[in-house]
Amino acid sequence: MSGTPTLDDREAEAIAIALLQQLPAYVPNWKPTANQASWALVQIFARYVRSLAERLNQAPDKNKLAFLDRLGVNLLPAQAGRAPVVFQALTNVADSRVPVRTRVGAKVAGRSEPLMFETETAIALATAQIAQVVTLLPNRDAYADHTEAAIARQPFTLFEPLQPIPHELYLAHDSFAIAGRSTIELQFDLTQTARESLAIVWEFWSGKDWHPFKPFVSIEKATDQNSLDGTQGLKFSSTIRLVTDCATSAPTRINGILGDWIRARLNQPLPPSGNLVLPQIDRLQIQTVIRQDVWSQTLRLKDLEGAATPTLSGSIKDAKGMPLPEVLVFVGDFFSIASGYTDAQGNYRFEIPATLATNLTCRQAGFTDICGQAGGEQRLDRDELHSQFWTSAGSRVC
To answer: Range with the lowest mean pLDDT among 63-67, 222-226, 328-332, 344-348?
Structure first.
């Protein structure tokens, strides 16, 4: 719809010029001269015509107002003009405050004096710079990051592009250092349980990326070698067992804290807030068991012959040839076990008890069936007696 038409947009000066051009046709003997009464009369007439034109130009709007008045539609009462104002703090100035009713001047074209406004409320001025700008859709558990565009003062579309909101729980403890076959048990005591099971993935930092523990299996099928979620997605207070096979973790820095970290990550969006009941943790207890079998062999009678006190000795090194200290080495059968730890150079040496040595010779009645002959050498079956070692919690061997 077009705006109100303008009937005459001439100014008083233009009207006076038009009048002087038309005077010879009507009054040929009258020639107004500047600074004379006749000239003043022409200027007065031009001003009157301009005033009349202004009122004629407003006639359509007045007619519209009269029509609305007949319909009972009244004009809004006069009120102060309002406009958003941006205050920018000066550099190297501490945080400050703009009090209420602070006067602000606006430059207006055609006016020598500024148009004055007053602030309606007090305003806090912070020298901090914007670090992140995001928009959030709670019912979809998603958000959009507009930081790059906002800092560059570029236009952006709210809520686009959406991405899932990450929900992660990070835990750090020295006992979370993983080497080889490891088991971490987390005892959760919940003050509030989840209404629905939460699909949670547990992971540890491998030095390059977040690596998952072995997947959970059902309670009916679970053994000590399986991960088990006794809380069923934090619906109950119980124990979560996390198991790794041959794996090694590495310290990393999370939120400025360096340590051995594990994390729980929700791998699906949260349900809408109307049905959402999240668990609340009252207490969390941890227990870690790290075991790594790195060597196993059959112990033969030949290894114990020729010594008044049988001993077992040797050294243990990793794949790079470096000695492994504090490694437990043991040998045993059905009746007794002998063991020892490696020293700082990776060497071990310990005595074999007489009872264990007697059993090794297969002389005890009722157990001669486990002995056999191989190349004229009496030895134990390989499935009956083994010497083994595994690393302690501080070792990194696989």
So the answer is: 328-332
Pairing between β-strand 327-332 and β-strand 386-391 as defined by DSSP bridges:
antiparallel
Provide long-range contacts, Cβ within 8 A and 24+ apart, for 242-245: 242/183, 242/184, 242/185, 242/186, 242/202, 242/213, 242/214, 243/181, 243/182, 243/183, 243/184, 243/213, 243/214, 244/178, 244/181, 244/182, 244/183, 244/204, 244/213, 244/214, 245/181, 245/214
Kindly indicate the confidence band of residue 364, based on its pLDDT and cuts at 50, 70 and 90: very low
Helices (H), 264-383: 354-360
> How many Å apart are CA 233 and CA 264, to the nearest integer?
11
**Nearest C-alpha neighbor of 183 from the set 397, 394, 393, 395:** 393
The pTM score is 0.49
What mean pLDDT is predicted for residues 24-35? 87
Domain residue limits, the chain: 12-70, 99-165, 171-284, 293-391
Distance separating alpha carbons of residues 335 and 263, to the nearest angstrom: 43
